[in-house]
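Lecture notes, structural biology module. Today: joint structure prediction for complexes of two components.
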Amino acid sequence: MPLGNFASLIHFLPELAVTATILLLVVVHVAGKNRQSAAPALLSLAGVGAALLLAALQPASAGRSLFEGMVALDGFAIFFKALTALATIVVIFMSMDSGELAGRSQAEYYIFLLSVLLGMFLLTASTDIVMLYLSLELVSIPSYLLAGYLKGRESSTEAAMKYVVYGATASGVMIYGFSLLYGLTGTTQIGEIGRALATGDAPLPVLLAAVMVTVGFGFKIAAVPFHMWSPDVYEGAPTPITAFLSVGPKAAGFAVLVRFFYTVFASPDVAAGVWKISSRVDWTLLFGVLSAVTMSVGNLVAVNQTNVKRLLAYSSIAHAGYMLMGFVLLTPAGLQAILFYLVVYLFMNLGAFYVVILVANGTRSENISDYSGLGSRAPFAAVSLAIFLFALTGIPPFSGFIGKVYLFAEVINRGVYWLAVVAALNSVVSLYYYARIVKVMFLEDPKDSTELPVPLFPRSVLCFLAIPTLLLGVYWEPVARVAANSVKLLAF
Amino acid sequence: MLTDFATVLVFMVLGAVTVALLLLVSRLVQPRDPTPVKLSTYECGEVPFGSSWVQFNIRFYVVALIFIIFDVEVALLYPWAVIFQRLGMVAFVEAFVFIVILLAGLAYLWKEGDLDWVRTMQDAPARKEGK
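The predicted structure, tokenised, for the full assembly:
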């Protein structure tokens, strides 16, 4: 029984905390004399920290439907709220340290950042297609603004423009798919749509709707063939935003993909403890192929990139491909693997981008060739980057390995051997381009041998990201348990 | 369900055929006597001049956005006023929160100088910071 509007408010505290912080930031921007002060950053940190705490305190035991069935409060939503809030906190630290953003209006930047966070909170919890569409736009529109935040720099403006055009097209196609679903079933609630489709027999319109909705979600997680925007946007956007887009909205995209497809186009098979496809549309095969293509394209194109941000963009496309493997299996263990991988991916990917920011602050360059001799110029940053890159490759004893083990194990358990083979081959390819950066850093002579100082603050943030990356490679059980518990409540 | 969509398909085909048919008939029976004035673009009775590919001031866009926000506010407050007596305090608090949020936006616009149409560079110090 869905709760009414007022009864829901008490279960909506993380979102309210973020909203209040956004409004306070507007006031700070209007009242503030110095627009380059650190006050907005600290205020956002406090607000997002409070939201993270409130989300973690929410009772995960019972799933609830809030606001007359608009959003759900279950373990799955709470997990993603905590994950995206954590990513936002790290990105705020990165932004405070980024040379690109220095001298630009601060409060507006954090207003957009927190708006994306609010959108992600709602997106991961939406159980109504209208709410889902609204929150997807709330994620997208401030993202466009953030991508173009370096006003006056050509690449940033280009990034924002491409992002808007692609985003508008993708969400247009997606809402067409939604309208088909509404036309078929006469309801906007995804649970009811799922029940109606399970009894119906109209494979063609359902397949059409599934493909159209995939365009919108595929755009958010940057899966091939909807990935065209991501290298240009990732290269042109301010680096903290690139890091943010590659983790936060991608995680939220996965959350909504799972919730939507597992509710609308599949139904829980309680006896076997898995989900089964309803409405005779075999979309898992479609996503299996999408997964294989995504990781192959991402890895193969990454091989001959010369710009670090572009390389990491293609690598994040490849990682979306790996995670899609868990999505097609329709098992709780597959979902658990995705959730676990997202946690691991958060630390290693944000860490890699953070080093890119630190190096760019010193050298004003993002080319791989300028990383030569970083091992002697800035040993701390270079060793951290090496840790993150090896973790991204999935080499033991780093956390990326454990993430991949969970994914591969479940793929093999379910007998999807061809996908496991493709993924294994892809991991080999990825070793080449990740290790190339490490080689340039440690084995090549520096072009310019002056030392790159890394102050104490970035050092401690790097430690905060590197320690989980190492620790989750040897002691991952608590996180895996949280991920497993978050999956159980999904069927709601 | 599929048969429902067949109705839609029949409707679409009939629509397309009707339009094509009407255009064809009109083409066959119409008298044709073109003059330069008749062939020129219709611009509400004015004599057309120039190309339509001109640059507009970007501030029209900002003004349009401001308008939409306050338009929505008014559209919401009308039904609110009608049922205000019945809902009492709850309605008051809800509308209050809603208006405070919009007021924050209005303060932002004011500070940024988006409410003044005529202005010089000195009037808008925020713009010169190169945000």
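Point to remember: The two ends of chain A are 11 Å apart (CA to CA).
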